[in-house]
Amino acid sequence: MKRAILFVLLMASTGLYQGCDSNQASPSEIKKSTAKLVRTQVVQTRQLTETLQLPGTLRAASVANILSTAEGGISQLLVREGDRVSHNQVVAMLSSLVREDIINSARLLMQAKKEELEKDPDNLQLQQEMQEAQADYLFAQQQYKEIPITSPITGVVSQRWVDLGDMIPAKTKLFEIQSSDKLLADVPVSELDIRSLKLGQTAEIYADACPEKRFKGVIQRIYPQVEAKTRNGMVEIRIADPCIYLKSGMFVRVTFVTQTIENALAIPVSAVIDRPQAKVCFVVQDGKAKEVLLKTGIEAEGWLQIHEGLALGDELVVEGQEQLKTGNPVKIQGIEKKIQQTGGVGN
After folding, report:
1. pLDDT class for 33, splitting at 50, 70, 90?
2. Domain segments of the chain: what residues?
3. Helices (H), strands (E): how many in the chain?
4. What class is the 27-43+272-339 domain?
5. Rounded Cα gap, residues 178 and 157, in angstroms
6. Strand partners, 95
């Protein structure tokens, strides 16, 4: 008699517990409901690659400002913005004020001697002085020549601040030359993500100017300071082989590989259901649905790493899981076709 009473109490408490579980289907629900149609796949391992994609800005690896070497005027202007120049190529000619003063003095002296000689053409001394003045004038023209302004690097003229005939003081900025074959990408990285990057790490660069190509890059500098307002640090990437359409100032997208896990147990992100403070999924066991609590890792390219909750070979519900509760009978989509192909039906 006592055993019978104990059994009745046990069954009653079990029924009460099941009735309190909102994710557990009651026996009556299971009996009345038809099997839920779902699609499944077997849980397997795969390689997961975690990436970080950030915007960046291109700039020239080398920038040279050309300054005037003396006070004077621009007598020749040989290049303009956009022109390609080579190392030591002459880009302008400068006539210094010292040169002009010396030549003008020699010219004025020669002119004065000429006028005196015209008044007294038989004066031998004036004739001698006239010859000396002419020689001094020619010497000044040959000795004090225009100063060539040359480019210190090979590149493209990006800025020009003078025009032909301008009179300029010494050390005035004339041109800016940017290297065209060596480009860098400056990428701001948050203080949380910058710790996952290191010198020498490779990156992939995409630019709208060259959409058909992905450029390889290498981190060559990680700046030590973080900008106080944005909490971003700057990472400098050297681009290995830029195309001719890439220009300084262009926007690029930079992708870093921050982590690669071989043979990671992973499932599609679409198979995961977000519960309050938890992630769950459903598996099929003995023809019924079972909710599983997950402990997850990284997410990459639509796949989620699983640390706990699933095992290799589990039959995971990947479609139709939103309608399920634990204990629901399920019907796996496409199972009949598989049976017919193996000869299990229609003898």
Report:
1. low
2. 27-43+272-339, 52-61+183-259, 63-178
3. 5, 21
4. mainly beta
5. 6
6. 73
